Amino acid sequence: MLAKRIQPMVFQARRYYVELMFQVMGRALQAVSEVDENVQNEARALPDGFLFEMMVMPDGSRLIVEHTGQGRFHYHGNTAPRPVDLSIQFKHIAHAFLVLSFQEKTSVAFANDRMLVDGDISYAVRMTRVLNRLESFILPKLIAQRAVKEYPADLRLPKKLISAARIYLKVATNFVETARA
Amino acid sequence: MTNKYYEFFCPVKVIAGKAALEHIPYELTGMGAKRPMIVTDKGVRAAGLLEPVIAACEESGLEITTIYDDVPPDSSTTVVRDIAGIYRQEKCDSIIAIGGGSAIDTGKAVNILVSEGGDDIAKYSGAGVLKHPLKPFFVVPTTAGTGSEVTSVAVITDENKGVKLPFTSSFLLPNAAIIDPRMTLTLPPHITAATAMDAMTHATEAFTCMAKNPLSDAYATAAIKKVSQSLLKVMDNPKDSDGRLELAQASTMAGIAFSNSMVGLVHALGHATGAICHLPHGLCMSLYLPYVLEYNLETIREPLGELLLHLEGPEVFAATPASRRAEASISAIRKLRDALYKRCQLPRTLKETGKVTENQLDHIAEMALDDGSIMFNPKEVSLDDARAVLRRAWA
Ligand SMILES: [Fe+2]
C-alpha cells in the first residue's frame, strides 16, 4: 500500500504496458503462425485445441492462445474457453515487465527463476522457441538480439509485421524510460 | 551484468562421513518419528546395505516398522500407491529411502500421498502444487551420482497413460541426506564410473549453463575437484573408503549445484538417448559431455577455462595460457574418459555402446529438443545443431 502512494504513476504505467504487450504478443502469435513456416512447424507438435497461457501472478494480466491445428494459433484475449494446458506464470509484474520490455531474455528469465511453468515441460520448451521466434519478428534486430539467445539467420520480415512492430516499439521504449526514471 | 539475479536454496541437512548411518535414529526421534518405513529396491537389499541401517536403529531402540524393497528401476504410480497403502496400514510416521534415483524419487512421491492423502499421485503432479511440509523424510543414497537426495524433483511413470509425471516442490526435499561410505563400497566398477561422470556432468553443466550463480559455482567446482582427484583412485582400489566418501560427497555437492542452476544440452541428449535406446543415464552423460562442451565452446570459453584448475590442479592450470584453458578442460575430461574406458569399457561414443543405431540419431535429436534442460543451455540449439553433435558423438 505504501509503495502505491510513493510511485503510483510508474506502477500504473508498468501494468498498462504489460497488458498492452500481452495483447501485442497474442495478436502477433496469431499473425506469425499464419506466415512463418518455422513457427508452424513448432506449433504442429502441439495437440489441436491446446491452450497456452502467459500470466502475471497472482491473478494479473494474461494472454491466451489456442493451437487450432496445422500450426496455427488463435488469440483468445485474456479469457480461456476452458482450463489451459500450459501456463507460464511470472512471479511478479516487475518480472513480466523485464521480459516484455525485452530487458531480459525469456530463457534468462526462466534461468533466473522469474517465472514458473505449470504443465508439460516439453510444451513449455516449444513455446519458448515460438516466443523467441516471435520476438525476433516483432522487434528490430538490435533489440531482438537482447530478447532471444540467438537471432535467427533465416528471418524475413513480412511487411505488415514490421510496421506494426515499429509502433509497438515506440510504446515500449517510452515505457522503459518512464519506468527507469 | 547489473541485471544479474539468482536464487539458491538447499535446506537439506547433510550428514556425511564415517558412521553417518548411526545418526539416523537421533535424527528421526528429533523429529518425533517413531515408526519409520524403509523404501528401497531388491539390489540394495541383496547387497546387504540394509543391515547397517537396521542395526544402527535397533541399537538405539528404534524399530524399523516396515520395509518395502520392490521399487523397480522406473518407478510407477501403481508402485507409489501400493507403498502408501502399506505405510498407512502399518501406521508409519516417516520414510527412509535407501537406493539410487528411483528409490529416492519413489520415496518422495510416497511422502506426498501419505502426507496429503488420497491414492492418486497424478493429482499432485506439476510445480508448486504442494503447500505444506510433508512427513519426516530421510535419504540414504547408494550410488554416487544422481544427487536426488538434494533435489526438489521426482519423476514417476504413469503406466496407464504412458507418460512421465514430474513433481516439483521444495517440500520434496528430504530433511536429511545421510552419506556413508559403507553404502557405496560395493558399487561395481562400471556403475561407479558412470554415476561419478553423472556428478561430473551435473557440476560442469551447472558451472557453464545459463542459471549459474556464485553459490552454485562454489559447489560445482568443489565437486569437480573431488571427482577428478578420486574417481580413478577408487576405480583402481574399490575398497578405498576415503575415496568412496569423496565421490559420494561430490555427488551431493554437484546435486546442490545443479538443482539451483540447472543443466543443459548434455542432459537433454542424455534423457532422449535413455528413453529411446535404454542406456543408463550416467553412461550417456559421460558420452556426450565433451561433444557438448565443444559445441558450446565459444559461449562458455571463460567459465570452462576456469574449470581447468579444478580438473587438473594448479600446476597444469598455471602452465596453460589463458587462451587455451577451455580446450585443455575438454582434453582433461576426454583423458578421464579414456582412463575409464581402459578400466571398465565405459563407452566414449554412441558406436561403442553397441546399443544405438545410426538411424536413431534423428529421433534422439528431435526428442532432445523437447527436453526441459535444453532451455538452460547457454547456446540456442536447433534441430540441425543437435544432429551435428550426435554425429560427432557417433564414432
Ligand atoms: Fe544427471
Automatic annotation (TrEMBL), chain A:
Domain of life: Bacteria
Protein name (Swiss-Prot/TrEMBL): SCP2 domain-containing protein
Organism: Marinobacter guineae
UniProtKB/TrEMBL annotation, chain B:
Lineage: Bacteria, Pseudomonadati, Pseudomonadota, Gammaproteobacteria, Pseudomonadales
Signal peptide (residue range): none
InterPro entries for this protein: ADH_Fe/GldA, ADH_Fe_C, ADH_Fe_CS, Alcohol_dehydrogenase_Fe
Pfam families: ADH_Fe_C, Fe-ADH
Top-level taxonomic group: Bacteria
Source species of the chain: Marinobacter guineae
Cofactor(s) required, per the database record: Fe cation
Name used for this protein in its record: Alcohol dehydrogenase
Residue span(s) of domain Alcohol dehydrogenase iron-type/glycerol dehydrogenase GldA: 11-181
PROSITE patterns named in the record: ADH_IRON_1, ADH_IRON_2
